[in-house]
Design brief:
The complex is a heterodimer of chains A (about 170) and B (about 425).
Chain A: E1 2-9, H1 16-19, H2 30-35, H3 45-48, E2 54-57, H4 69-76, E3 81-84, H5 89-98, E4 102-104, H6 106-111, E5 117-121, E6 126-129, E7 135-137, H7 143-151, H8 154-163
Helix pairs in contact in A: 7-8
Chain B: H1 5-13, E1 24-28, E2 31-35, H2 38-48, E3 60-63, H3 73-88, E4 93-94, H4 103-109, E5 118-121, E6 135-138, H5 141-150, E7 152-156, E8 160-166, H6 175-186, E9 195-199, H7 201-204, H8 208-216, E10 225-227, H9 232-239, E11 259-264, E12 271-273, E13 281-283, E14 294-298, H10 299-302, H11 305-315, E15 325-329, H12 333-342, H13 344-351, E16 354-355, E17 376-379, E18 395-398, H14 401-410
Parallel strand pairs in B: 2-3, 2-5, 3-4, 5-6, 8-9, 8-11, 9-10, 14-15, 14-17, 15-16, 17-18
Antiparallel strand pairs in B: 1-7, 12-13
Helix pairs in contact in B: 2-5, 6-8, 11-13, 11-14
Classes of the chains: A alpha/beta (about 170), B alpha/beta (about 425).
């Protein structure tokens, strides 16, 4: 899979309360959640994001609550992929499970600047910075992770696998 | 090669003699938990996947606690979704308002989770039950939907960091202070993906309630679980509550740890975690002249009877400072009625505190004590992230119940010793 978009930079320990504040968790509607994504630390984020854009963050991205609303909000506001130095455990699992591609990459976290145009090849594990001309390496997605993301999430993937008797 | 308690519980639940860190396993679960926020998402996924019946109606717990009693129309709809599903599936462990409590206080109290269990919950603080010697961890709604369908969940067996606490505690130091100190030492990602195993002679003297507080906050260091070996205190707690068999696991002497960290608890004073991360913990003596607007005593971290006793011991005979709102939220109905029996309720009300029915409410900025712009709270909860309890420009200081109560009296962050003579 190839993703291409502008980079949005965030720091370390971006927690699920700033990704989607709990005051909006009285809904499960992804569009409503997306509208409030990151609003406490980056007001207007959801309006400024263009479909395909990419989040690049520091360590422990997604720490805190287990709310799946967090990766859902990010995915729904148009972010194609999240790159971070490291991810919190539950957020990592949730992102894959709902079909939001995420990758760990130290170099990208170190060198990508806000607004850089990135191109990510998840099969090869290569992140190209089209603005600076450099490229960074990450772990390529194994086939089953690719399968889950292409199916749009774990349960869709399970259902498809069942139909194919895999 | 020996195994840790975490490895042993996992091995048992995937029917193996031995599992090693890094190994991927599909394990049977003893309990799958969800609340009014995460439950409806899981139920939607469950139905979308075409599932008809939960794998075992006695092994699913659905607790409306976050925005319940319903805080607004949308929350009422979420609780209704949970309730309808519980009735349709005849879920044994559904607890309605008036009988419910904050999930991680309620489940151990009612004997729904027991030593040796493997528990997943769509709530990050599911790690609380580690204090019973169970493996329990937070998952998202999709994982929970899968667990409700199949009775299984996949895991990577974690490496374990062993924390050894020894020495004699200082006055007013509790399990909350030990865990805040630990998180301050290793950082909010200090145990990322790993198991935290709490041991040492200093733990022997902790009450069960203090142990729950420690395991509860393992997630604040990024850990997968926070576990303790059961001892006499655990068995005494479980004895009157268990209505089924359970198994005691202990780590082998030659179990392998990726790190062992030693703490002399006599060097630890009551802790306060400054905004906006739990790792910003310092001794309460280092916090000078921080005036406050609100105090919250409650939550899955510190809403149990022992927490209420500590706060009451401090506030007895004193008044809440005129500029402070003090909100006390017993975590369960049992804690609530025990407070009445012990006269604790009266102490709080006499002092000028508000006492609420059980709810997670303000801990996650839901309701029952939201902060305005620029306001500061001392809270016995678990997270002090930006905007966690209200306005993004409000501040939360995490502390134990005695520090919270002393701060309510003085109107600023205060060591309990300044309010009570010990």
């Amino acid at each position: 899979m190839i993703f291409r978009g502008r980079a949005w930079i965030f720091g370390d320990n971006i927690d699920t309360d700033v990704i989607i504040p709990a005051r909006y968790l009285n809904t499960t509607d992804p569009q409503e959640l997306a509208f409030h994504c990151m609003e406490d630390i980056s007001p207007g984020f959801s309006k400024k994001v263009k479909r395909g854009d990419i989040i690049v963050a520091g360590k422990n991205f997604g720490c805190g609550s287990s709310r799946e609303h967090a990766p859902l909000a990010i995915k729904e506001c148009g972010i194609s992929c999240v790159i971070a130095r490291s991810f919190a455990r539950i957020f990592y699992r949730n992102s894959i499970n709902i079909g939001l591609p995420i990758m760990e990459c130290e170099e990208a976290a170190d060198f990508v600047k806000a607004g850089d145009e990135l191109e990510i090849d998840t099969d090869k594990g290569v992140i190209k910075n089209l603005t600076s001309g450099s490229s960074y390496n990450a772990m390529p997605f194994p086939d089953f992770i690719k399968g889950i993301i292409q199916a749009g999430g774990l349960l869709n993937y399970a259902r498809k696998a069942e139909n194919r008797d895999v | 090669m020996g195994m840790t308690i975490t490895q042993k519980i996992m091995a048992k639940h995937c029917h193996k003699e031995y599992v090693e860190p890094g190994e991927l396993v599909m394990a049977d679960i003893d309990m799958a938990l969800a609340n009014d926020i995460t439950g409806p998402v899981a139920i939607e996924e469950f139905k979308k996947a075409g599932a008809k019946k939960v794998f075992d109606r006695k092994k699913v717990a659905l607790i409306p606690d976050h925005f319940a009693p319903n805080k607004d129309i949308k929350s009422a709809e979420l609780c209704k979704t949970l309730r309808s599903f519980a009735r349709e599936q005849q879920i044994t462990h559904y607890y309605e308002v008036g009988r419910m409590g904050v999930e991680h206080a309620l489940l151990p109290e009612q004997g729904i989770v027991l030593p040796g269990d493997l528990v997943v919950g769509a709530d990050s603080h599911t790690c609380t039950y580690g204090a019973l010697g169970a493996f329990s961890t937070g998952v998202g709604s999709t994982d929970l939907a899968f667990a409700m369908m199949t009775g299984k969940c996949w895991f990577k067996v974690p490496e374990t960091i062993k924390f050894v606490y020894h020495g004699k505690k200082n006055p007013w130091v509790t399990g909350k202070d030990l865990i805040l100190y630990t998180i301050g030492d290793i950082g909010v990602d200090g145990a990322l993906y790993k198991a935290m195993e709490f041991t040492g002679d200093a733990l022997k003297n902790l009450t069960m309630d203090e142990r729950f507080t420690m395991s509860n906050m393992a997630i604040e260091a990024g850990a997968k679980n926070g576990i303790m070996e059961p001892d006499e205190v655990t068995l005494e707690y479980v004895k009157s509550r268990a209505r089924r068999d359970y198994e005691i696991f202990k780590s082998d002497d030659d179990a392998k740890y990726c790190k062992i960290i030693d703490y002399d608890v006599s060097k630890i004073e009551p802790q306060v975690a400054l905004p906006h991360l739990p790792e910003n913990s310092v001794s309460v003596y280092e916090v000078a002249d921080v005036s406050i607007d609100q105090v919250v005593i409650g939550s899955c971290t510190n809403g149990r009877i022992e927490d209420m006793r500590q706060a009451a011991r401090v506030i007895r005979g004193h008044k809440v400072h005129p500029y402070v709102r003090m909100i006390v939220i017993p975590a369960t109905q049992e804690v609530y009625s025990q407070m009445i029996r012990e006269g604790i309720m009266e102490i709080f009300i006499e002092s000028g505190a508000a006492v609420s029915t059980p709810t997670c409410g303000p801990c996650l900025g839901g309701y029952m004590g939201i902060l305005a712009k620029g306001e500061r709270a001392v809270s016995t909860t678990n997270r002090n992230f930006v905007g966690r309890m209200g306005h993004p420009e409000s501040e939360i200081y995490l502390a134990n119940p005695a520090v919270a109560a002393a701060s309510a009296v003085k109107g600023k962050i205060t060591h309990p010793g300044e309010v009570v003579d010990t």
